């Protein structure tokens, strides 16, 4: 930790209205007892807040529908930035009473807006830069700029109390954007923390999980709803990676829609897969649509990929298309048809919503030309790793040494530095 981050922030001039009042009333630009009091107030406002979008955060802070005003204020919030008349007017419209709690609510949303927009842009391109590159501290020689390269949300007394919320919303925003690019998102699927961390370190912008890999790694069969505890535990663990993660939740592990919705809202991941396959066939499409609708109502910022298992059962294209339309109408953000390979059907389904297919013989560019927006490896990487594990053991038995990651490389992959909550 840089000792400079423990120094006080520069004082801001007092103000009675507009941005000047906001700056002089928030925790961000205060020190000493005033800072402690305001920080406690800020933490109280965030206590128990579990949101997936900026709109939800605005509602939780009593500022529903005010993001346009926040967007006017944000570019003028920092003391070194010029203030516009529109920003002053926006503060006054939101303020009502000019008290510290009102300032805290506005300030929290302003900082969340700025951080999530910057961080989401970085995550979408693999840019490791922090959302705010520098912070300012007061020294005897004057104001100095301190790099936040290693502390993206500050550190010490001014560590951001809302960084977990801002990070989550940013990951959700970035993950959604990755489904609306010219080239399809190639999404590798991990089965534990080390495989996910290695894939992120290899440059993949987002990571998924594989239900077969998770279940088999715990001695359980896939698709039977038996690995729910293990899948949820892994999703929570991977949510700390510095990239968006989407979790395969099978069909919700037998939980009712309301419980699945609460689970998704609290997982911390940017996306989930929910399939209409069941241990003994397909779910009724209306039942699956109700599950999708419940999840999207509770966790609107989480990208819900509706997996359709008709191809596994050899059903007609018409059944697949009908289910896809119903699930999209219920709120699904994307559709995933496992086993889909026929070009004409790919093009037709891609017109309904961002389409996900499994990796196949066609290149990402060829699939992208057909309209595909996401290519998953599914259980392929897990099965490949299992195959190479056995092959490597045989080579050792035969007197050879296989290639592998070094001990220190693996230690680095699972260090705290690979997680977005690193301090």
Structural summary, described in words:
Helix 6 packs parallel to helix 7. The N and C termini lie close together (8 Å). Helix 15 links the parallel strand 12 (355-358) and strand 13 (372-376). The chain is an alpha/beta fold and 423 residues long. The protein has a nine-stranded parallel β-sheet. The chain has two domains: 3-170, no CATH class; 178-386, Phosphoenolpyruvate-binding domains (TIM Barrel). It has 17 helices and 13 strands.
Q: What percent of the residues sit in helical stretches (DSSP H or I)?
A: 40-55%
From the N-terminal CA to the C-terminal CA, the straight-line distance is 8 Å
Order of helices and strands: HHHHHHEEHEEHEHHEHEEEHEHEHEHEHH
**Name of the top-level CATH class of the largest domain:** Alpha Beta
Instruction: Kindly identify the CATH topology of the largest domain.
Output: TIM Barrel
Uncertain regions spanning at least 5 consecutive residues: none
| Gyration radius over CA | 24 Å
**Number of separate strands:** 13
Structural class: alpha/beta
Would you tell me the overall average pLDDT? 91
In DSSP terms, counting alpha (H) and pi (I) runs of 4 or more, how many helices? 17
Q: How much strand content do the residues show?
A: 5-15%
At the fourth level of CATH, the homologous superfamily of the largest domain is: Phosphoenolpyruvate-binding domains
Assigned CATH architecture of the largest domain:
Alpha-Beta Barrel
